[in-house]
């Protein structure tokens, strides 16, 4: 049991503080442990190649293969947000990118009114119980519960915290 806890601590300590992507001691990327990062809906389809290529071309930088596809009908985006060791569980770090927005930095988990999480949702449970649906400008990443619930469907937000984390929009 102690050995497993030590491995988990070591794995969390090796997350890149900006992207939340796990790295080994040499700085090479590894697979992050389950539920230290946000997830997308289990029925999310394949990434549309043309859209991923267009976003990479617009920003002049390829999409990281560790980013998850989010969004849908109107547009797609790619996200990664993970917990970091030594910070409150409602703070995650990562990246979101689409055709007009590129953010790298910290996110704060909150309800839509900007308050702390509802009493029945613990920060440690969110990564197990919610998935990232899409990015909403001015709000942040929108998370919905994995379990079906009757309307109105509750949702949470991951709000960007770092003003300097936004890149200037690509030209044209």
Can you give me a brief rundown of this structure?
The protein is an alpha+beta fold and 172 residues long. 17% of the residues lie in helices and 27% in strands. The chain has one domain (35-165).
> For the residues shown, what is the average pLDDT?
78
Radius of gyration: 16 Å
Assess the beta-strand content as a share of residues.
25-35%
Distance between the termini: 55 Å
Globular, elongated, flat, extended or rod-shaped: what is the shape? globular
- Kindly report the spatial arrangement of strands forming the biggest sheet: 1-2-3-4-7-6-5
What is the domain tally?
1
Structural class: alpha+beta
Number of strands: 7
State the low-pLDDT regions, or none. 1-34
The proportion of residues forming helix, as a percent range, comes to 10-25%
Number of helices: 3
Largest sheet geometry: 7 strands, antiparallel
The string of secondary-structure elements, in order, is HHEEEEHEEE
Keywords: Signal
Organism: Paracoccus siganidrum
Protein name: DUF4893 domain-containing protein
What does this structure look like?
The structure is a single chain. With 172 residues, this protein is an alpha+beta fold. It has one domain. 17% of the residues lie in helices and 27% in strands. The protein is built from 3 helices and 7 strands. It has helices at 2-13, 49-59, 123-129; strands at residues 68-71, 76-83, 91-97, 102-110, 130-136, 140-145, 156-160. The chain is globular and about 45 Å long. The protein starts with a helix and ends in a 12-residue tail after the last strand. Keywords: Signal.
């Amino acid at each position: 049991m102690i050995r497993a806890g030590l491995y988990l601590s070591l794995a969390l300590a090796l997350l890149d503080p900006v992207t939340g992507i796990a790295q080994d001691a040499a700085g090479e990327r590894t697979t992050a442990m389950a539920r230290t990062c946000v997830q997308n809906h289990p029925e999310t389809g394949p990434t549309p190649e043309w859209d991923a290529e267009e976003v990479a071309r617009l920003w002049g930088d390829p999409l990281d293969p560790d980013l998850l596809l989010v969004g849908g009908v109107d547009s797609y985006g790619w996200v990664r947000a993970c917990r970091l060791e030594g910070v409150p569980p409602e703070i995650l770090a990562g990246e979101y990118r689409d055709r007009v927005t590129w953010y790298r930095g910290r996110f704060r988990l909150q309800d839509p009114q900007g308050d702390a999480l509802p009493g029945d949702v613990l920060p440690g449970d969110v990564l197990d119980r919610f998935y990232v649906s899409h990015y909403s400008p001015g709000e942040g990443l929108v998370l919905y519960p994995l379990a079906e619930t009757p309307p109105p469907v509750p949702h949470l937000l991951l709000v960007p915290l770092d003003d300097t984390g936004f890149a200037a929009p690509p030209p044209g």
